[in-house]
Design brief:
alpha/beta; Rossmann fold; Zinc Finger, Delta Prime, domain 3; 5 strands; elongated; P-loop_NTPase
Length: 327
């Protein structure tokens, strides 16, 4: 787990519990995406299934290590990977359960991993629940969720629950610095906060075109405020993903509210203080709050309405928002 140092303690925790025969058969993990939970479970599973493991590390040479590395181990079920669809249906659960009650292919443990337990349909959850009530012998379940409140109580009551948070900012920044020499501290911290302190998501954000696109949006907003030139703003908006641009504008408005209410230490867009100050200087708290609420409502429309012309609604939303950028 040296690749993700913030997960080493949790890796050792799982390994030590298994070594002492105290690892619960059902392990529910609440953690954000972008911190390496799948990698954590993959490494724990490699160690458990290894035929010649030492105290904390798998041998990397046995048949079991080879098969799990190739993502082809018969006793490791990565359920979300098996499913070809976004939601996991009852048929997949039934097939896995049927296999769990058969003898292990390698004579050891069987491991079932859900990278998103909330993606199961109601029928799939009910079928799974019957197995969780009396788990098959030598079987371990790892259930990951981003939001434990969405997990049904009957699953929670049968699980040992682990809360794994994103690493502290200093740890995440140290990790990011080693991988990104061309960005300064403020840029790294901005990217980290935009990605809710999840370092792996931040790394993808920095190395893809996403950070550059976001900077183009901020520059276009700045230019519109200073010169009343909206050409660049519309070019960016009309060529941007609606969900991403909505999230970025929500963060900018929230930062402006934080600036006005003396919560500057929690601002996400640290590299845009001048822009935040300009917007804050020409708008009071209520105007900013109401505009933020309208963007949040628009966000809900994007995620729930599939037949509407989302680009047209975005244009209407932008036109309304542009009014607060000029007074």
């Amino acid at each position: 787990m040296n690749k993700y140092p913030w997960l080493i303690a949790q890796y050792l925790n799982f390994v030590k519990k298994y070594h002492k025969n105290s690892l619960h058969p059902i392990n529910l993990i609440q953690a954000p995406t972008g911190i390496g939970i799948s990698k954590l479970i993959f490494n724990v599973s490699k160690w458990i299934l290894c035929l010649h493991k030492n105290k904390f590390i798998n041998c990397k040479k046995c048949t079991s290590c080879f098969l799990i590395k190739k993502k082809n181990h018969p006793d490791f079920y990565n359920v979300n990977h098996i499913s070809q669809y976004k939601n996991i249906g009852i048929n997949i659960i039934r097939d896995i359960i049927k296999n769990l009650y058969q003898t292990s292919q390698h004579g050891g443990c069987k491991i079932v991993y859900f990278s998103n337990i909330n993606s199961c349909t109601l029928e799939a959850k009910n079928a799974l629940l019957k197995t969780l009530e009396e788990p098959p012998k030598n079987t371990i379940f790892f259930l990951h969720t981003r939001n434990i409140t969405q997990v049904i109580n009957t699953i929670k009551s049968r699980s040992t629950i682990y809360y794994i948070n994103a690493p502290l900012e200093n740890s995440a920044i140290s990790w990011l610095k080693k991988k990104n020499k061309k960005f300064n501290f403020i840029q790294l911290l901005t990217a980290l906060r935009i990605n809710n302190n999840t370092p792996i998501s931040t790394q993808k954000f920095l190395t893809s075109n996403a950070f550059k696109q976001r900077n183009m949006l901020m520059h276009a907003i700045h230019k519109y405020i200073d010169k009343k030139n909206d050409n660049d703003l519309w070019n960016v908006v009309l060529n941007y993903d609606e969900k991403i641009i909505t999230t970025l504008i929500c963060y900018l408005l929230l930062d402006t509210i934080k600036y006005n209410t003396c919560h500057k230490n929690t601002i996400k867009n640290l590299d845009q203080f001048k822009l935040i100050k300009k917007i804050a200087d020409i708008n009071n708290f209520n105007v900013l709050k109401n505009n933020l609420i309208s963007w949040i409502n628009f966000q809900q429309i994007l995620s729930t309405s599939h037949k509407l012309d989302k680009k047209l609604i975005l244009i209407e939303q932008i036109l309304s928002w542009m009014k607060i950028l000029h007074k």
